[in-house]
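Protein data:
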Amino acid sequence: MLDDKNNSINKNQDDRNLSDVFRELQEIRYSQTNQVNTSSSSKANKQPRPKAKVSFIENNNMSFDNKKGIKLSNLLIVLVVLVLVIIAVFPMNVFSVETGNTDEETDEVVETASIPTNFEINRKALNMQKIISENSSFEKVKEQVSEEREIEYEIQTGQNPTLPRGEQVVLQEGVMGKENVSLVKTYENGEFIEEIILAKETIEEPIPQILDIGTSDFLADLKIHIGDIVYLNKNATLRKEPSEDSEAVAEIKNYLDVKLLELPSEEWCKVSFDTIEGYLPTDVLTSSSKTPSIIEKNRIQRILINVNIEMELNKSTGLTLKDYQKIFKDLPNDTNGIFEENAEVFYNMDKKYNVNGIFIASIAIHESAWGTSQIANDKNNLFGYGSYDSTPYESSYEFASYAEGIETVTKSLVKYYLNPAGTKIYDGETASAWYYNGPTVEGVNQRYASDPDWHTKVYSYMEMLYNRLS
């Protein structure tokens, strides 16, 4: 009878699946904990299923043979250890899989003391196939190469007090060097990631770039350089050395221009005034960049410095029509407005006959007493042209207009008084020079007027008219 029972147990063991084994192991664990023998019974809703039984038999009560008992005992021990390891690693509820069915198939309910019968499905399981597929697409490649590369040149700088502050001048151009570089490059999926340099060998040494950097605030303020033209903003004394105690070389008037030659300090500079060299304080100078109006003022001043009693009159003044209009506008003694009205006529004489038009106007002012003489009023003759001392009114020429009289006298002075014989003058003619004694006021005086002081009187008018420009 016992043999049949053992055979039945062995047969049942052969028919069991893994779920049955886990269930039986749970029963064993809980039966030992609660010290209660458990038995399972199944209740079939429709069709009953055979129950799995495990009987705990004392060693001294074993009726089956010793060999099979030992084998089963060892199996149970291994399974228990396995279950304990699994339970220790995973929480109990991870393995609970609900065995109850809601369909019409056979449902089994194992009635045990507090034995959980449900196993929870892990819904966040890793997709190992996907992970392997994704990682297998990464390709990291390393290669060892040798390349020729450029070596950066260094920049060497020096301070230059003769340059505007901040300005740079390249004294020597920089040249890149060359070197051989051995290195390992790493690529991932064809994209460069990093490199490790193993060795370098210089082929050509780089040539440094050399720069001069300016430090002069004076040059920067005026926006100028050595060799540029600068202008005086006040009258100043040109000195032999850069010191107020040094010997005076020349006096230079306001607005005149000089050429900047050297800058020994921020306080003094060496300049050239026409052909004279010397030193000026830097604070008496300005530039066209800083003072734009200085250009026009310099033009006028350049004209005025050449105004003197010895000046040559067989040259144009260089004045513009606006200059002439400015000179003759609102002259206090021009009560009849004759000279203001004929300002353009004097300008045209200046340009057409290459003569000093201010000189022509000054003769007219002196001879006509500012256009108030009887000859001027009656005969439009501002010069008393043709008059003799004995019969001044009767012998003087009469003109249709002041402009006609002005041009007639101008042509006569150009042809007979102001130019050496043979000088080309106007209309293809040459100068006769019958009364030529030099192209100055004094030279004209010798044959033009009987008054020996005539030239000083005429020049005083010239000087007055010129000064109206400033």
About this structure: Residues 369 and 382 are 9 Å apart (CA to CA). The radius of gyration is 62 Å. The longest strand covers residues 191-204. The domain at 306-467 is CATH 1.10.530.10 (Lysozyme).
